[in-house]
Design brief:
Blueprint (H helix, E strand, L loop, with lengths): L1 H24 L20 E14 L5 E4 L1 E15 L2 E19 L5 E22 L2 E19 L8 E5 L6 E13 L2 E10 L14 E13 L1
Antiparallel strand pairs: 1-3, 1-10, 2-4, 3-4, 4-5, 5-6, 6-7, 6-8, 8-9, 9-10
Length: 225
């Protein structure tokens, strides 16, 4: 009988303790959190295709001219090789259109303008950091191989003809790249980047002067496993 009373007393004390906690701290809420994105998804090698818009200009060009932007495109193949979370290696091969417009006054005092379009094969070799399940930051070097240049001459010149140059024998350029990527879906990403030549290009420029390409890029990438 004493054992039964003793067990009954323990049950009353336990019930009173639970009731007191509910009184002072309120009822416990069950918080359901979404399951974290499986990190195993990160360690899958992915290849893909990409394409987008280039808005290009130049820096360090033509002291007698002011330069402006021109529009072009970029397109190519991508690869995402996981290293250690959250870092991966992201090499690419892109066909990229760059260039600029120029306006100014020549030595004779005439107002002149022309447009230069440069075509490159770009090979970005980027480090990619996943900062959140849907957002990544990229930066690294890029090797640019010149393919061709077209110059279109406007007012102020004796003609408005185009001049075409094959630039495949020109020296390759070293660029710097910084950008971000937003995952719109598991296999679709929105890409935004800025690239700039770290070395100057003074080849095939009839009006003289060194210049460096700079390009703002935006586009979509499609990834496959």
């Amino acid at each position: 009988m004493k054992k039964i009373l003793f067990l009954f007393a323990i049950c009353l004390l336990a019930a009173g303790s639970v009731s007191a906690q509910g009184y002072y701290y309120g009822p416990r809420r069950v918080v359901r959190r979404p399951p974290p994105r499986n990190q195993d998804d990160f360690y899958k090698v992915r290849f893909g295709i990409t394409g987008g818009l280039n808005v290009a200009n130049t820096v360090n060009a033509y002291s007698n001219y002011s330069t402006g932007t021109i529009a072009g495109f970029n397109a190519g193949l991508t690869l995402d090789i996981p290293l250690v979370y959250p870092l991966s290696f992201a090499p690419e091969v892109l066909y990229s259109q760059k260039g600029f417009t120029a306006r100014g006054v020549d030595d004779a005092g005439n107002n002149v303008n022309f447009t230069q379009r440069n075509n490159y094969i770009d090979v970005p070799l980027l480090a990619k950091f996943r900062l959140s399940p849907t957002f990544s930051f990229l930066f690294g070097p890029q090797i640019s191989f010149p393919v061709s240049t077209t110059q279109t001459f406007g007012s102020g010149f004796s003609s408005t003809d185009e001049e075409h140059f094959n630039t495949t024998n020109d020296a390759t350029l070293l660029d710097g790249v910084v950008g971000v990527a937003f995952d719109l879906a598991p296999n679709v990403e929105l890409r935004a980047r800025y690239t700039i030549d770290l070395t100057q290009n003074d080849e095939n420029t009839s009006l003289g002067g060194d210049y460096r390409n700079q390009v703002w890029q935006i586009g979509l990438g499609f990834k496959f496993q």
